[in-house]
Amino acid sequence: MHKLFYPFIVKKQTLRWWVLGLFSGFISSQENGFAQTDSSGMAQRSPIVSLSAVTVRAIAPERFLVGQKIQHIDSVTLRQFQFGSLIDLLSLNTPIAFKNYGPGQLATVAFRGTSANHTAVLWNGININQPNLGLTDFSTLPMAGFDKLAVQYGSSASVVGSGAVGGSILLGSNADWQQKFSVTLGQQFASFHNNQTQANVRYATALGQNWQLSGKIFAYRNKYNNIYPYTERQRYFLEPSTTAQYGFVQDLYFLHKSGKQFSVNAWLSDNDLIITPLDTIARERTRTQSARLLATYEANRLTIRLGWIRDVLDYGKGNFYAPSHTETERLISRVEREFPLVSTPSRQLTLRIGGEWSHYRTRTDGYGGQLIQEDREDLYALMRFQTARWLLSANIRQAFVTRFNPPITPSFGAEYQVVQRDRFILTAKGSISRNYRVPTLNERYWIELGDPNLRPESGVNMETGLAAKVTLSDNIALTTELTAYHNRVDNWTYWNPAKEYHVENLQLVVARGLEFNTGLVYTQNQWRTGIRLGYAYTRSSQERVYDNYAQDVVGKQLPYVPIHTGTANAWMQRGTIRLTVQAQANSRRYFTADNSQFLKGNTLVNLLLEHSVKLGPVPVRVQGTINNLFDALVVGVKQNALPGRNGTINLIVNFSSAN
Amino acid sequence: MNNQLKKSMAIGLVALSVWNCKTSDPEPTPYGDGVYVINQGAFGKNNGSLSYLNRTGSTVATNIFVQANPTLAVSGGSGQGGNVQDYIEVNGKGLILVDNGTVGQDKVEVVEAGTFMSRATLKAPDIENPRLVIQAGPNKAYVSCWDVSGDFNAGTFYKDPGYIAVVDLNMGTVSKKIPAVKGVERMVLVGSEVFVGSNAYSGDKTLLVVDANTDAVKEKINFGATPEPIALDANGKLWIRAGKDMVRINPQSRLVEQRLTFASSLGTLAIAADKRTFYYTLGGKTSQFSIEATTATGTQVLNRSFSGALGIDPKTKQIYGSVIPSYDQAGYVIRYQPDGSLIDSIKVEIAPAGFFFR
Q1: What is the Cα–Cα distance from A261 to B152, expressed in whole angstroms?
Q2: Interface residue of A235, A284, A557 to substitute, partner B, most B CBs within 10 Å
Q3: Residue of B nearest to A281 (CA)
Q4: Which residues of chain A neighbour B151 with C-beta distances below 8 Å?
Q5: Fewer CB atoms near the end CB (10 Å): N or C, chain B?
Q6: SS3 state of residue A498
Q7: Would an 8 Å CB–CB cutoff place A500 in contact with chain B?
Q8: Do residues A315 and A285 make contact, with C-beta atoms less than 8 angstroms apart?
Q9: DSSP codes joined into one string, A594-646
C-alpha cells in the first residue's frame, strides 16, 4: 500500500514523467512544493489573473458587488482542507452556521441569520443549489471538487439572482498555465476507519503557434465507515452511519493568444449515505448524484456560457428497492457583454449587460410523478465606476419565471478610500440592494402541501463597513474589517406546522448583525507566524403575528442561528513545517421557534501539523490533524452526540515534469 | 435559661445532623402531588419532555427529568433524547417511554417517583419503539413495543408481531419479551389478564389476552376490526375503540355488550373519575357519554376540542385539555371546572400529548 512512497520507485516514476515531458516539449520550471500564498483573509486581492487587457475572467459577484464584504479563502487554507469538507472550512473561517444532522448527514447553511435556501452556491458562476429543495446539502460537497473558494456576504440578487439573500458561496475551477505534466496522489487515513483517496492529473501545453491547453482530471473517493469506539458520549447516543463519496472533475481550457478562451468544466459527484446500516429493516439510505457540465467561451468582452446540471436524489428505507425518487435537469445559457464606456488612467466606467435563460425539467414522486417544466429568464445590467479613491457600482436585474413575477432588483454600492498611504489604507464601504427568492419547486409543486400561487420572497439588504490594511513594520502586516448589516425579508415562506405543514408566505424576518475580522502576519527570516480572528453578532427574528400563538414566536431568534460566533486561526511556520491551531466557537442555538429549547454553545479546537519533504525529486506533503482536541461534546440536530477527539494523517505525493 | 439554651442548641444540632443525614434520601418530593404533562416533542428533533403542574396555582416546572438529573443532560436540550410517548408510576417508580427517531436509541427511563431521580435506563434491543406502559403486577410493568419499523410504503413499518416488554421494577430490567400483535399499542389490565390491541393503522384485528401472572399469551380473539382497549368502567366492563365504534365487552365472557357508532373515530378520550362517563372530542366539541348509553349521542361539555390530549383529574374532576399550536413552539394546557368554566391556561412544552394525574 505504501509502495508509492519508496524513494526508488518514486524516482523511477518521476524519471518517466520527466522523459515524457521532454518528448512533449514541456518546459521544466521550479515549483516549490509549499507555495506561500498566505493572506489575512478578507482583505486579500482577488486571485484572478487577467491574461489580456480585454478579457476579464472574474465572475460578476467579485467585481460588481461594490461595498459588500467578500472573503477569499487563501490557497494554504484550501490545501489544509484538501481532504476536508466545505462545512469544516466555512465553520472555522467564517461566521456561517450549519444545521448539522450528524457526520456525513444533511448539513444546511444559515448565513447572516437566514435559512438554508437563502444562500446561493455558485460553481464557476452558475447556481448549483438543488432546485427542488432550493438549497445545497453541504455534506455532499467535498473540498476536493473545486480549486477556488470565496464567500460573498449579504444579498446579491442583482448579480447572482434568486436565493442570494444571506450570501453566496463561490466555488471555482482554476486553469494552471504553468507548462508541465503532473500527477498528484493523495491518501487520508482517519479515525473511525475512515479513508480518502485522490488522484489529480494536471497538464498544460502549447497547441501549435496560437493556442495553449491547460487541463485537469481529478478523481476522488471518500469512505466514511464511522466505526466509533463508543456508542454514547455522556448519555448522548452516536448515530451509526456510513458515507461513500465518489467524484470526477474534468477541466479543459483552450486559450488563444488573442485572449479568447474556450473552456469546459465537468463535475460528477455521487454521495451515498446510510444511517444505521446494520439494521436491515430500519436503515435509511440517501443517494445524491449530480452531474454538472459547463462550457464557456470568452472573447473580446463577450462571455457565453452553456451549462447543464442534473440532480438525482433517492431516499429509501430497508432494502432500497423502491426509493422515493427526484430527478431534475437544468439547461442554462448565459450571454454577457462588457462595454468600457470610459477608460482613462484616472477613471474607468464599465457596463456589463447580460441575459440568462434556463429551462427546468423535474420529476418527483412528491409532485405526483409527472414531468414539470418551467423556464426562467433574467436580464441584467451591471455598472462599475472607478477613480483613484472611489469605486461605485449600480446594478439592476429583472427575472422572469413561468407563472411568476419576481420583483425588479436594483443594487447600489460604494467604496471610498478614506486614507491612502503607503503603509495604511482605510476604505469605507456601503451598499443597499433589493433581493428576492423564487419559491423552490417543492414549495410550489408538492402535492397538497405546496402552493403554486406563492409569491416570491422579497427583501432589502443594507450594509456598511470599514476595512483597513496596515503595514506596522517591515515584518508585521495587519488587516481588519468591520461590517454592519440589516436585511429585511418579507413574504418569507414557511411550512406552517399549525396548518399541517402547508407552505405559506407567512413571515417577516429581520436579520441584523455585526462582523469583525482581523488578521496579523509576522515574517522574519525563516519564520512566519500569523493569526486570524473573526467575530460575528447575528440577530435574526420573525416579526409578524400571523395567528394566536405566533405571539410566542415574534422577536425570537431564528432556530439554529447562534447569536455569537467566533473563529480563530493561529499558525507558525519555519521552512516547510507549519503548525496551525483552528478554533471555532458559537453561543447557544435554539431549536424551537419560541426559543424554549436550545443546543448549548460549544468550542471546537483542531490542531494541524504539516511538513513538506522531498523524496529525491518528488515533493511529499504530510499533514497530521487532531480534530476536537479537547474532546468537547457537541450535540447535533437530532440530539445525537457528534464524535469526540479524532485524528487524520494525510499524504500527498506530487510527480511533476516540473520537479 | 442557660440550660434551656444549651438544650435547645443540642436538639438543634441533633436535628440538623439528622436532617443532614436525611438530605441524601429522597426527602423533598418536588414533583409530588400534582399533574404530569407528557410533552411528546417534535418528530425528528427528539425533544420530548415532562412538565409538572400543581393542582393549585398556574405555575409549571418544565423539563423535570433534566431538572432532577442535571448531570445527565449536559447539552441544553430536553435531555430526554427522544419523543416521550407515555409515563406511569408503579410502586414508587416512574417509567418514561422515550422513542428516538433512530433505531437502537429508544429507552425507558426508570425514575424515583416524586423526585424524578434516575434509577435505571432500559435500552435497545429490549426496548424498540415503545408506545404505552401499564402496571401489570405489584412490581411489574408492561411496555408495548412496535419493534424495529421499516418502510411504510413497502409494508414493513409495523413488524409482525410487535412485543410487550415485561419490566421487573425490582431489578430494573426487562425480564421477558412477549410476542404480541402487529403495531401493538393499548393495553388494559383486568384482574390478572391484560387485554392488548394495536394501532388503528396496523390493520391487525386481533384482541390479545395475556396472562399477567405467567406473562404468556392466553388467547387471541379475532375482533373484526383493529381493537384499541381504552379503559375498564365502574361496572368492570372493558371499553374498546374500534374505528368509529366504542365497544363495551364483558371481559370474562369476551362478549360484546354494547356498540356505540359515532360520526367518526373519537380522537381524544378520557374516562371520568367515577369511571361512569367518557369524555371525548368530536366535531370541534368536547362531549361526554355514559357507560350505560345505548346510542352514540353525547352531551356537550365544552364548545371546543383539543389538538393535544384530554384528561380528567380523578382528584378534582377538573377537565384538562392540551393545545399543540405547532411542533416548533411550546403548547398549552387549558383547565376547566367540571361544569365547563375556564380555570386557566398554562404554557408547557413541545406537543403536550398526555397527562398523568398523581
Answers
A1: 54
A2: A235
A3: B150
A4: 316-318
A5: N
A6: helix
A7: no
A8: yes
A9: TS-SEEPPEEEEEEEEEEEEEETTEEEEEEEEEESTT----B-TTS-BPP-SE
CA atoms within 13 A on the CB side of A278: 7
Count of CB contacts below 8 A, A vs B?
124
For chain B, say whether A388 makes contact (Cβ under 8 Å). Answer: no
- Name the residue in chain A with its Cα closest to that of B159: A281
Identify the DSSP state of A238: P
Contact B49, B84 (CB under 8 A): yes
- Residue B164's Cβ-side half-sphere holds a number of Cα atoms within 13 Å equal to 31
**pLDDT number for residue A220:** 96
Q: What is the pLDDT of residues B129-159, one digit of tens each?
A: 999 999 999 999 999 999 998 887 777 889 9
DSSP bridge pairs for A560: none
Q: How crowded is the C-beta side of B187, counted as CA atoms within 13 Å?
A: 32
Write out the residues of chain B at the interface with chain A, using a CB-CB cutoff of 8 A: 42, 44-47, 62, 72-78, 81-82, 100-105, 148-151, 153-154, 156, 159, 325-330, 347, 349-350
pTM above 0.90, yes or no: no
Q: Examine residue B161 and say whether the peptide bond preceding it is cis (omega within 30 degrees of 0).
A: yes
Query: What does DSSP say about strands A167-172 and A119-123: parallel, antiparallel, or unpaired?
Result: parallel
End-to-end distance of chain A based on CA atoms, in angstroms? 24
Q: How far apart are CA A392 and CA A64, in angstroms?
A: 9
The per-residue pLDDT for range A171-208, each reduced to its tens digit, is 999 898 987 899 999 999 999 999 999 999 999 999 99
Identify the band that residue A32 occupies on the pLDDT scale cut at 50, 70 and 90.
very low
Return the bridge partners of A586, or none: A565, A602
What residues 22-61 of chain A have any CB closer than 8 A to a CB of chain B?
A: none
pLDDT at B9: 55
Intra-chain end-to-end CA distance of chain B, in Å: 48
